[in-house]
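Tutorial handout. Part one gives the primary structure; part two gives the three-dimensional structure as tokens.
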Amino acid sequence: NSQERGLSASTATQDESTVGTQERDGNGYTIAENDIKLFMSGLDSKESALQDDLDQQRLDSKDTEDRLSKALATLRGEEASIQNDINKLNTKRIETREAIDKLSSNIGKSRLRKSDVDDLKRKAANAIEVRDKLMKNKRREDIPIEMKIIERDLNRLNGEIQNDQEALLWLRRNQEAQQEIALLKDQVVKDVGGLLEDVRECNDEIVKYCGEDNMKNIEGMGGDEDTGETLDKEIQAIFQKVEEEHKRLKGEVDESLREQDYLKKTISEKSALLSHNQNALEKTKRRIAILTGDGGSVRKFKKIVKEVRNFERSLGPVSTDNDISAQDLSKILEERIEENSTEGINHAAVARVISRLKKMSKPPKSEEGSQLLSCPCCRREMNTDEVRIFQNVMEGMRDSKNSPFLKTSELEEDALGKYKNWKERVAECMVGIAEYERLMQEKNDLQETVEKLDTKVKSKESELDIQRASHSKNETELLDLNDLLQSTKRFSDDAMRISRKRLEIESKETNDLNMSMSLPGDSNRDLKAAERDLQDRMDQKDQLITKMNRLNKESNGINDEIAIKNNAALNQEKLARETEAKYMAEQEASIKRDELKNQLNEINDEQSKAQAEVAPLKQKIQNKELEQKKARNLARSEEDKVAKSVNQFREDVNRLKELNERIRRYCNSDKDDELQRLLSKITNLGERIENKAQELKTLEPDLEKLVKSVSDQESHKQTIKDNIKLMHYQQQIRESEQQTSRLKEKLRNIEGAEECEIDLNRAEKRKREILDDIAHNEGRRGGIVDQIRLLKRKLKTEEYHNIEERYRVANIKHTTTVTAVKDLDKYRAALDTALQKYHSIKIQDINKIIRELWTLTYKGEDITNIELDWSKDTSARTKRSYNYRVVMTKGSSKMDMRGRCSAGQRVLACIVIRLALAETFCVNCGVIALDEPTVNLDEANKAGLAISLAQIIAHRSKQNNFQLITITHDQDFVAAMKRHLVTQSGFDMPEKFFLVSREEGVDGKYYSKIHAVDWEELT
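Part two.
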């Protein structure tokens, strides 16, 4: 490999040197194309051979790796199999040990003997014998016979008691009816007298609005023969008349209020408009005062008119009036300026006019020889002197310097200046004068409007006063009429109530008569005799019930003793069976323990053998792993060497191929000619660049001179412009200084100039302040105007449509809501107080019923009574939230039942509280449902619960809506209820009870069935 790499390198070097020689002088060594191809083919063959060696090396390494891995896997599989067997044996050994330990612990706790089992069987036989003797007691047969005799006596007494109760009820109702009739008659007499007295007190008002007929009719009423219908009719007639008069007067008052509202609204609108016009008038007057005051346009204009009139008076007749308008004065001044001004008169035009006049002064053609001239105006002939004067005047007029048409006098110049000054001042006052005239027109209009509005407001106010006086009178009369209406309404209600009471008296008297005719039993007995007979029969019933309870107690005692003995016999028999079964189980466990011990010894032997086989296998596996590691490292090293040689050879071959390709491309192209051409072109371009650079250096001085010259000319031009501006400004300054000097000179000549200057400065300062205030107020005014405009647009939107009416409705709603909330708060407070009082009363009623039921039901001695205790929940948001707890009493001590009573006591307390709640609140729904009420109750409490339920059933037997539903598995409890129900009277015994059983159907499924069983079959 090293020799081949050296050969490749030398060949590449030789190729490069050959190419280089060709680049220098074109002479060198040339290799043929075929030789190159053969050489490259040999290199490809060599590369394939090296690659084959590398692949073979990798295959050999892989075979060795696979062979060692397979052997190693075989050894590890054998090891894993043996280790798995060891783990299974270990698990089995642990399980066997645990089973042995468990059996040993069960056997070692208590070893039963055969004699123990025999003793328990003997005790069970003795308990069964005692139970059978008790069940054969003769009193079990005698007690039911005695109880049936007592039941017949009780039924008889119950019938008699029921008759006595009905008679007593009829007698009591009769007595109450008589008392009610007497009471009603007394009330009618008092009510009629009081009603007539109240009506007489309102005699004047009733006569005023209803006339005297009704009062005369009422005066003759009130006797016993009057049933109240006539009085009621008269009172109703009075009430209707008063009500009609009240409606009429109320309509007039409402109409007066609407008229007042309309007048108020009209006055408000007119007053607002009057105030607005008055403010506008005052503002107009203030503005007129400013215009006519010192410094105002009107005052200035009058001053100008006065000056013009004085000036015209100095020249001749006055043509200007004192009341002349500004426009007319401006036109007159403009005419005077045109008359006194020579501006616009052309010399050539003057010369043509003079020539025309001279021509017109010559005589006609017939008189051409004459030397005389005639006047061009009147055609009078002039003499010689006149002609000479005329010609001299004409020549003077024609002279451009001294012509009177082209030259003005000092007086004319002074008049022209004054006229121009007056015209300018009049022009300055034109705006103020126009505003003054407009304001005067507005002032007159506003004064007229204010007078009209003031007249209307006063007229409407007088109408409003009249309406108010009328309304006040009607309102007072309406209040009196309203009081009379309330009184007559009360009279009407009283009369109707009296009429109803008399009808009720008649109805009760009729019912009393019918009641006396239908009185059951001995109609000669009075109330006391009926009560005495009923009490005697109740005492007899109580004696029979006491005897019945004694027999029940004796029967229950016998049954309880039998039940106790029966339970003892069953328990003994069960204990004997369980002990015998346990003895047999211990015997079987001892045999099984011995078998497990033998099995454990066998497992230990097998585990020892397996562990002895594992050690050699682990050693073999370690050796194979070392051998595999060495072979893997050796193969990797050899493979890296071969791969490195192949990569190096490929790199050399690629370099050689690249060089060969480059040489071939160069030989096939015309690079030499192109190179020479490019070199020549580069040489020419270099020469041209040098020539242009030389020319540029030659032109640079001239270019700098030209740039400098242009820059100098621009600066010179700007300097000239600045000088011209400077001269112009200096000329303006000189003229301004001269004008200022003249003005100062004139100012010094005027008397009081200094004071005027001070006043002027003060006035200018005041003017600036006023202008600032005007600008500030105008800005505020503009903002307010924009805001008003915005608010007006906003008021026209849908959101503020009819906003005044909506505000009025919303305000009324808010006020009424606040009032309603206050009333509801008062109602809530009163309701809360009433509920608390009602709650306290109901808790007392519930505790009273609980006390009676608990005393009757509970047969223990540890709890005297239970009751429901309550307290307010201070953490609750509302006031009507309470915490309840059940407390038990022993003597005078109270404590919570929670956590201090047995399960039976809890069940009994729950039933008693439920019964008390039903008794208190379920007035219209007398349904009581008890599901397994005897759970956790002992026999004494069961009997007490049966007595309580029996008494509740008897007490509520007269209720049409009473229903008791009891669900229980305890038939003894139901039988006890039956026995106690027999002792009660005044109701019918139940006919049937329902028995629920589970039976298998024809389809193999179980179904619940309900059977109705006769009550008499229950024992």
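Part three, for discussion. Residues 1-29, 365-369 have pLDDT under 50 and may be disordered. The longest strand covers residues 882-890.
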